[in-house]
Design goal:
The chain has 3 domains: 42 residues; 57 residues, Structural Genomics Hypothetical 15.5 Kd Protein In mrcA-pckA Intergenic Region, Chain A (Roll), CATH 3.10.290; 173 residues, Pseudouridine synthase. 30% of the residues lie in helices and 23% in strands. It has 8 helices and 17 strands. Strands 7, 8, 9, 10, 13, 14, 15, 16 and 17 form a 9-stranded mixed β-sheet that branches. Helix 2 crosses helix 3. The radius of gyration is 32 Å and the shape is elongated.
């Protein structure tokens, strides 16, 4: 026997070792692949959530009934709530009076006053709101509303945000609730540009203060994107103020916080939209490019000259 050749029992031991290693690797691989599925089934069994239910997850309710009706063409959620509470609405053939009922718009059949509702054509308007006009549908004090200017198309759209009675300028309206939510969401940072006439001449120091952000009377902060002096005319200063948020009466309150009042306030821009070519009290439809631009991101337009 040659001393360099392995003995028979050494060969057998080596073969046994290889077999064990292969078997071990095989079991490890199976365990690795099985582990995620075991955990998955274990968690679902704990929470009593059958795996078979995964196929039905998209049918979960996604929206309150009043919002669905508004999306289907009723001009406002307030009108929708009133119609629901009056028993005028049926969901899948049954009268429902709960405006806060959660439903899935694609999974239910809706009727209003016996007529089946279908989603209205999506409308997107920019309106040059006059001063002294309110944005609500009706007013107990019989003040003039924007809907007197919008006529028939006004039945199907609602304002995206608000302008108070004494503010004029650009107002966006739509019946696309998802679009409206995006535009008004602070995270979207859709810029709003205002032309402001103040009750006196503002010093450079005050303009710097406004740019840095000021604490308003209610204790909340105004944090404008920019405040820029356009010109001083006589005893008044004209400013351009750009905001990325939508606090109530923010422009007026921030000017009051530095000791002045707003004598005139005009919203001149919203994202890519301006008042260019639009007369007071008139409206136009947005172009597809403008709609897409508002969906994507915020924009800054050049300021218009003082009125």
């Amino acid at each position: 026997m040659h001393s360099g050749e392995p003995k028979d029992h050494e060969v057998c031991a080596q073969n046994d070792s290889n077999a064990v290693s292969a078997s071990f690797r095989h079991r490890v691989l199976i365990s690795v692949f099985r582990f995620p599925f075991s955990v998955f089934h274990f968690l679902f069994s704990i929470f009593h959530f059958p795996v078979s239910a995964l196929g039905n997850m998209q049918s979960k309710p996604t929206m309150t009934l009043d919002r669905v009706l508004s999306r289907f063409g009723l001009a406002s959620r307030r009108d929708a709530r009133q119609a629901i509470q009056a028993g005028r609405v049926k969901v899948n053939g049954k009268v429902v009076r709960d405006a806060d009922l959660w439903v899935s718009p694609d999974q239910v059949t809706l009727h209003l006053d016996g007529q089946r509702l279908k989603p209205a054509r999506k409308s997107y308007l920019v309106f040059y709101k006059p001063k002294g006009v309110i944005t609500s549908h009706g007013d107990p004090g019989e003040r003039k509303t924007i809907y007197e200017y919008l006529k028939e198309i006004g039945k199907w759209v609602s304002p995206v945000g608000r302008l108070d009675k004494d503010t004029s300028g650009l107002l966006l309206l739509t019946n696309d609730t998802e679009f409206a939510d995006h535009v008004t969401n602070p995270l979207s940072k859709v810029l709003k540009t205002y032309l402001v006439k103040t009750s006196g001449l503002l010093s450079d120091e005050i303009v710097v203060r406004l740019n840095a952000g000021v604490e308003m009377k209610r204790g909340d902060m105004a944090s404008p994107v920019s405040v820029r002096r356009l010109e001083d005319r006589g005893k008044y200063t004209w400013l351009e103020i750009v905001l990325a948020e939508g606090k109530n009466r923010e422009v007026r309150r921030m000017i009051e916080a530095v000791g002045f009042k707003v004598l005139k306030l005009v919203r001149t821009g919203l994202g890519p939209l301006t008042l260019q070519g639009l007369e007071v009290g008139k409206w136009r439809e947005l172009t597809p490019a403008e709609i897409a631009s508002l969906r994507r991101s915020s924009h800054r337009q050049e300021p218009q000259r003082p009125y």
